[in-house]
Each structure stands twice: as C-alpha cells, then as structure tokens.
Design goal:
This protein is an alpha+beta fold. Helices cover 36% and strands 23% of the residues. Strands 1, 2, 3, 6, 7, 8, 9, 10, 11, 12, 13, 14 and 15 form a 13-stranded antiparallel β-sheet that branches. A two-stranded antiparallel sheet has the order 4-5. The model is unreliable at 1-7 and 236-255 (pLDDT under 50).
Length: 544
C-alpha cells in the first residue's frame, strides 16, 4: 500500500514539473516573439521613415502583382476567353450566334443552255454563265431549347433580300435550264417498267421538254407551277418516304415543307424548316466541344449515306473551341444541305483588317470517288471523281454537287461541253479564315455548284430513251461573309490581351525593383549625411 502511494506521489510531482516546464517554455517563446517584434518595430522606426515604409509597401505590392500576373496570365486569359465564347445568354458569342451580325452576300450564277434543240442530236451543250444575281442573307436562331447535357437545340430561320445594285439584272431575266420535275419523275420510276411506261405516256401527252425557259426569280425563291408535279402528287406509292414529290401538307414532320411549286429555294425565305432540327454543344460543360453538332433531326446519323459516311459530325455553325485553328491541320463543318461533313485543310497565314488568320481551304478529297480516296467509298460516288452524289439526301432528288465549273474534278465533266465550263483557282474555292488563338471565323467563302445527272431511261420512249448522258450544271453560288472593319478592333484587342497582360506583369516588377532601389539609396545617402554631421573631423581625415 505504501509503495503504491509512493509511486502515485512521484508521478504527480513529475507531471507538475512537466506542466511547469511547458508553461515556462511557452512564456519564453512569448517573450522572445514580443521582444523580436518590439526590436523589429524599433528598427523600422529608426531605419525607415513613414514615406519610405509606404514606398516599400508599394514595391512589395507591385512585386506580388507582377509575379501573379506573369505566373497566371494564361489561366486568366483562358478564363476571360471562355467566359465570352461559351454559348450562354449574355455572352458576346451568344449574341453573335443567335443573330448573325456579319452581312452575308450570296451571288447566284446560272448556266444558260444555248443549243437546247441540237442536244437531242447528241451535239455537245453550249453554256453561257449568267450572273451574278445577289442576295443579302440574314439568319437568326429560333426555337431555342437548352439541354442539361450542355447542348442547345434550335432551328435556323433565314431571310433573303435581293440586291439589284449588286446584280447584272432583275429577277425577271430568263435562262434556258434543265426541266428538273421531268428528270425527277424519270429517275423516280427508273427500274419499274409499268411506271416508266406511264411516265412516258404522261410526258408525251404534255409535250414536255428536257429544257425550259424560266425567270431567275422562279428558279430561285418564287417557284413555278408544273403539271408533272401536280400529276405526280396524285400517284399512289407504297413507300411515301421514297417519293420525290409526295409531301403531305398535314405531315407531322415539320422539317419537310409541302411542295406546291418547283424552285431551288422555294419556301426557304423567311422559314426554318429547310435545315431541320439541330443540336449543338455550347461549351458550358466542356469547352473543347464548343460548336460541335450533337444531333440532326434528333439523330446522330443520316440515312443518306451508309457506314461512317452517314455519321453526323463536325461544327454545326462554324464555331470552334479556342486554339483549335492553331493546333489542328484541318477543320470539319457539317452541311445540312449536303447531309455530310465538309473537311477544310490548312492553307497558310493571311491577314484580314490587320488580324492574322489561318486560312483553311475545302479539301480536294471531299467529292473524290473511291478510286482517288478509298475512305469515300460509302459516299456512293460511282462516277468520275469530283462530284458528290446527293440523290438520297433530304428530298431524294436527282441532284449532284461539285465545285463551281467542276473545279478540281475529273476532266471528263468539262469535256461534256463545247464551251462554257472554265474553272479558276481561287474564284471557285471555298475557304474559312479563322483567328488561331480564339478560333473566331473572320471570313467565310462557300462556293458550290448544283448539277442534274441527265441519263437515259430505256422504258421511257419519250425524251429519255436516247438522250445523251450529261452531268448538267444548273447554277452555282458564291456565299461570302466578311467581318466588317469596325469589328476588327475588339478582336485585335482580344488577341493582344496576353501580350498586354505580360506587359502588365513586367512593368510592376520593374517598378518594384526601382522603388526598392530608390528607397535603399535614399537610406544610404541619408545615413552618410547623418554620419558627416556627427563626425566631421574623422570624415575630413578619411578624405585626406
């Protein structure tokens, strides 16, 4: 019992001694810190005046600001850039996207058939280009629906305004062109002997012709009535989805408009049905996906082409993530009119209104057949290279697309004509001009040509049995959008922002060291002055 009591007493005393030592150590530390601060404060009061202290504080602040700016300038710039390029209400990119501020001018050029009567005698066509007939295009996005996955669904509504002063003539000018309804009817019944006989009889009764004369306005937006279309609507077909002309007015598919007349852009002016329902990544969830098309008509592929060629991919409206133009050798745009992506390859640096831009040109392989580009086998271009088969796209019409005047296409196409086809590099190319840091398009040139493949149909004795096979060009368009010079200033400022931020980081550092140097020189001189006053005799001896 006594041993236990002794042990407890010893332990208690040891514990008290330990606590006492701890308290003593804490008191010592507190005393040291207090004395350090006291002496430091005394030293500062003795060494620096109030003015010098303020200058040193300014120097330290400048040093901190400059170091921070140089270290994080790229991060700050990216945050500023992303905050304005993301498609969200209130951002600069959203305002420019929802209603295009850049004027778009589209020039239409028609191929006038000079010798239509001699064509049936297998004489090569003679063409004369007529144009331009210029329209100003305004576009806005409608039916906006924000999705939870960082995408936005919408439609494009376009308005076209004829610019007479920029055109060679009025829309009442006439050209002789191919009779698309007649060719479409013949292609639609191809392979069905009974239907071919019926179409032949119908065309004979109507005394239809392969070439007709129409006004520019009728061929573009106004449209014209045609008996072939009226009769085609009355035909009963088993598969309405494959009918070229049978569009029900009460159809639930709003992406297809009822066709009452024929015109290449009939019912497209002031409507939103043509391009269908689009869904695009806004960049809110992932900036690297900015502008990428997510779906078209609620699907991620189109039935116009099989396999990989039917995949919906590329930029939806020419928007790209920041830096893409400088890091990639090619860009991709999805075209709803062609039901496929178009690829543009880097061509080199150019300048627009003082802005350094990367120029991308429509790749030569886009419309190549599989013999030139094996990857294009699924595009069904089983014809000489350079022309894209669009017969299964949208309205399933006998339309093929190429560059104007069959530019970069097989010489076969030019050799079909006596004259009238002359391709020119530069004038017949399509390009994207993009500022590399921000990936903002500064200039866009889109030039494509619409063609009708005219070929014989053995079962249609009237017109089509002995007709020469020709890829006949109907029209080509030159659509150009260039950023106005007054908009170049903000883009240049945005591009120069990293340089400005770097200068804002370097200048404070220089100021910081200059201020500190000034303070210490001032202290040194002041110290020398005080020293001279206190010991003049010694100072004179030193000088001697």
């Amino acid at each position: 019992m006594s041993s236990w009591f002794l042990m407890e007493t010893v332990y208690t005393r040891l514990q008290k001694k330990k606590n006492y030592d701890n308290l003593k150590a804490k008191a010592l530390c507190s005393w040291l810190l207090k004395n350090c601060f006291t002496h430091l404060n005394l030293f500062l009061k003795m060494a620096f005046s109030t003015k010098e202290k303020l200058l040193l504080l300014l120097s330290a602040s400048s040093l901190l600001f400059g170091t921070t700016m140089l270290t994080y300038r790229q991060t700050i710039y990216n945050n500023i850039l992303n905050s304005q390029l993301v498609i969200e209400e209130g951002t600069a990119a959203y305002n420019a996207w929802v209603k295009t501020p850049i004027p778009v001018y589209t020039k239409f050029y028609f191929f006038d058939m000079i010798n239509p009567d001699a064509f049936h005698n297998h004489e090569k066509p003679i063409l004369e280009e007529r144009g331009p007939y210029t329209f100003r295009e305004d576009e806005m996005k409608v039916n906006l629906t924000w999705q939870d996955n960082g995408t936005i669904s919408y439609r494009r509504m376009k308005f076209w305004y004829f610019e007479r002063e920029m055109s060679v003539g009025p829309l009442t000018d006439e050209v002789t062109t191919i009779n698309v309804p007649a060719v479409g009817a013949a292609e639609f019944v191809r392979g069905d002997l009974f239907m071919e006989w019926g179409i032949s009889d119908m065309l004979s009764t109507m005394e239809a012709k392969i070439f007709i004369k129409k006004t520019i306005g009728e061929l573009l937006f106004d449209g014209y009535e045609d008996l072939i279309m009226d009769m085609s609507k009355s035909l009963k077909v088993q598969d309405e989805e494959e009918d070229f002309y049978d569009f029900e007015e009460d159809s639930e598919d709003e992406s297809i408009a009822p066709i009452e007349k024929f015109g290449w852009f009939y019912q497209r002016n002031g409507t939103s049905w043509s391009d269908g329902d689009l869904s695009m990544h806004t960049g809110a969830e992932e900036m690297s996906l900015l502008g990428n098309i997510a779906s078209w008509n609620n699907r991620n592929r189109t039935e116009a082409f099989p396999g990989d060629c039917g995949t919906v991919r590329g930029s939806s409206d020419g928007l790209f993530p920041p830096g893409l133009a400088s890091s990639k050798d090619s860009i991709t745009i999805f075209s709803t009119d062609l039901c496929r992506p178009l690829h543009f390859t880097r061509s080199g640096m150019q300048e627009v209104h003082g802005i350094e831009v990367e120029k991308f040109v429509l790749a030569a392989t886009n419309f190549a057949n599989s013999s030139v580009c094996p990857e294009n086998d699924c595009y069904n271009n089983n014809i000489p290279s350079g022309v894209q088969n669009l017969t299964q796209c949208k309205e399933k019409s006998p339309v093929f697309v190429s560059r104007p005047h069959f530019h970069l296409a097989d010489p076969f196409y030019k050799e079909q004509f006596q004259y009238g086809i002359e391709s020119k590099e530069g004038e017949h190319d399509s390009t994207f001009w993009i500022e590399p840091k921000t990936s903002i398009p500064v200039k866009v040139e889109m030039r494509l040509q619409l063609n009708i493949f005219l070929r014989k149909v053995e079962g249609i004795d009237y017109l089509f049995k002995k007709i020469p096979e020709v890829m006949f060009p109907v029209l080509w368009f030159d659509s150009v959008a260039t950023m106005p010079e007054n908009m170049a200033g903000p883009i240049n400022l945005l591009v120069m922002l990293p340089t400005i931020m770097q200068a804002c980081g370097i200048c404070p550092l220089i100021s910081s060291f200059t201020i500190a140097l000034f303070v210490f020189i001032s202290i040194f001189l002041d110290s020398r002055q005080r020293h001279n006053k206190l010991h003049p005799a010694q100072f004179e001896n030193i000088l001697k």
